[in-house]
Amino acid sequence: MIVLGVDPGTIRTGWGVVRRAGPRLVGVAAGVIHARADSELPERLRVIHDGLRAVIAEHAPSCMAVEDVFSKHARSALVLGHARGVVLLCAALCELELSAYPPAVVKRSVAGRGAAPKEQLGRVVCAMLGFRTMPAVDATDALAVAITHANALLSRRQPH
Question: How many domains does the chain have?
Fold first, then answer.
């Protein structure tokens, strides 16, 4: 099983790929799709789409997981929703099963608490997946989403 996790953003969209190897997860790759901050929103969304489609073509994930949009400000949530919409579209166009997780659930499932700072989350992700150097923050967030989904899939398959 190969899971692609995505942390959507209109300037930086993080992505991370994990693979299940028996009982453990292995980090395959991670990165950030960078859109120019001075570009118009439609152009930034195209960059996200093209970048994500390239990641999917290269890594051939069996499913995708995305972090839900969370913002205390309505305008920020609306703009982030556009980037998340591009992620949803990419999953549909590539016929990938898609799941979504709130940020607090991702942090709790990976770092043990929903309010874990990003640095702590990044360290835990790197330790879990065997990364020697820590990827960019947006990429480690995406890897955490992928870990959350991979573990959720495993727990669904195990008899209770």
Answer: 1
Would you name the residues annotated as active-site residues?
7, 67, 138
CATH number reported for the structural domain that contains residue 134 in this entry: 3.30.420.10
Q: What is the pLDDT of residues 87-98, one digit of tens each?
A: 999 999 999 999
Distance CA 72, CA 85 (A): 19
- Overall pTM > 0.85: yes
CB 43 within 8 Å of CB 35: yes
Judge residue 108's burial from the number of C-beta atoms within 10 Å of its C-beta, 0-12 exposed, 13-18 middle, 19 or more buried: middle
Which helix (H) or strand (E) segment holds residue 139: the answer is helix 137-157
